Amino acid sequence: MAPVAMRLAAQSLSDAQPVPFWLEDPGKPGALPALTGTETCDLLVVGGGYSGLWTALLAKERDPARDVVLIEGREVGWAASGRNGGFCAASLTHGFGNGLARWPGELPKLEELGEKNLDGIEEAVARYGLDCDFERTGEIDVATEPYQVDELHEVYEEIERLGLADGIELLDRDAVRAEVHSPTFLGGLWDRRGVAMLNPAKLAWGLKRACLDLGVRIFENTPGLELAQSGTGMGVRTPYGRIVARRVALGTNVFPSLVKRVRAYTVPVYDYALMTEPLSPEQLASVGWKNRQGLGDSANQFHYFRITADHRILWGGYDAIYPFGGKVSAEMDHRPETYLKLAEHFFRCFPQLEGLRFSHAWGGAIDTCSRFSAFFGTAYQGKVAYAAGFTGLGVGATRFGGDVMLDLLAGERTERTELEMVRRKPLPFPPEPIAWAGIGITKWAMAKADENGGRRNLWLKAMDRVGLGFDS
User: Fold this and answer.
1) CB of 248 closer than 8 Å to CB of 226
2) What is the pLDDT of residue 172?
3) pLDDT digits (tens, 9 = 90+) for 150-197
4) Would strands 313-317 and 267-276 be described as parallel, antiparallel, or unpaired?
5) Of 94-98, 198-202, 305-309, 453-457, where does mean pLDDT reach its minimum?
6) What phi and psi, each to the nearest 5 degrees, are found at residue 29?
7) Max alpha carbon distance in the chain (Å)?
8) Do 399 and 204 touch, CB atoms closer than 8 A?
9) CA-CA-CA-CA torsion sign (358, 362, 366, 371)
10) What's the pTM?
């Protein structure tokens, strides 16, 4: 980073508060009391992020008489569900390319189910009055290098070949800059209906209220400590009590699963974001962005960015930090060296906004697996179901995961449970220090591919062959 650029980036961060912008909201609901004593229920949901909240809500929609309890280790939405960028995508596969590489035969069905899932989220926002700034504006994948323009053309041709191009528009340099002006943009692929923008914390809090209104009993500051069989059901021990349930759905995602054999399939990756102060009318005019789409660049080490309801710009991504041993720690929630890097990249993308300052800077852990999209399963003779490994798709795909878990717990064969994506698991991660070394080498190789016109080296090609590669 050049000294001048570094100085400007540092100055822009001088007032940034080290807290997630979304969670610093005066409308945040108070925490509900912790569970004490012994409770019984039909369905226990462990985890108060999107995965658990959608599962509890869908369970009550399917059977209003079902007694559902949800426990959350801290407060609803405090972790990844309240820290993300607010991109609610229809994709269940972490992008078209990843889905095509892994499930080519069922990709049209996965795309169809993903679209229905996003429609279901939009309907729930309206039905329950979820005040979360939901806007189905779509997302533009932006090319910032010539080779990325070629790649976007290839992706569009493949989408057309499969008959999935409805609502997808290929943009040349002038067209993409007419939408959002940056001198770095060379082209784009706009999915007009496949992504919605929203306020992620408000979505979590709205789902909490909707669950309570339907009769879900929620206990916060109540981590699930241990899972074991209890008669014909399952028992979960908590700090001050115990819950006995006929069935259990685990939505703990990045945190260690209560089914210990599942833990090897996920690792935590820390992602970081900045939020600007509100843009002035003149600054807004200089970037355009009247259609308010989400954006993401097409590099392996990519940025995601969007505009908020109050005309701020969220700018995140690029660095993805894996902590040795896979330990989730509050110390990792902040990384000034990444904030500085992100700020410099921001002004490279939007030089016309020089002088704009960042109001918030934060990070958080997301769970990823070796195939970069969710996996599912059951334990204890079908009494426990889990969904994990959403890899940044949790805002939207967790609702689909909730439906899958409920199907599995009911022992039902549905179009969801028959999917190869649902029936098969990814490869587990190796033990340390192999995992740390392998992830580090892969990150280095992906950065080199960005520098070398997208060319994947022997390491990445080997990862592709064994199912550990990533195609966006």
Assistant:
1) no
2) 98
3) 999 999 999 999 999 999 999 999 999 999 999 999 999 999 999 999
4) antiparallel
5) 453-457
6) -70, 155
7) 67
8) no
9) positive
10) 0.95
User: What is the H or E stretch that residue 388 is in?
Assistant: strand 384-388
State the average pLDDT for the chain: 94
Strands, E assignment, 168-278: 168-171, 187-191, 195-197, 217-219, 226-230, 233-238, 241-250, 267-276
CA distance 276 to 399: 30
Q: What is the pLDDT of residues 364-423, one digit of tens each?
A: 999 999 998 999 999 999 999 999 999 888 999 999 999 999 999 999 999 999 999 999
Strand pairing report for 375-379 and 384-388: antiparallel
Three-state DSSP class for residue 14: coil
Over 60: is that where the pLDDT of 470 sits? no
The region that residue 138 occupies, defined by phi over 0 for left and psi between -120 and 50 for alpha, beta otherwise, is left
Three-class DSSP category at 251: coil
Q: Which two tokens stand for residue 115?
A: 């679209």
pLDDT in tens, 301-319: 899 999 999 999 999 999 8
Alpha carbon distance 82, 312 (integer Å): 17
- As given in the structure block, the two tokens for residue 48 are 């108060």
In whole angstroms, give the CA distance from residue 37 to residue 236. 12
**Residue given tokens 């409770």 in the structure block:** 39
Q: Could you tell me the two tokens for 131?
A: 């005040």
| CA nearest neighbour of 137 among 182, 83, 194, 95 | 194
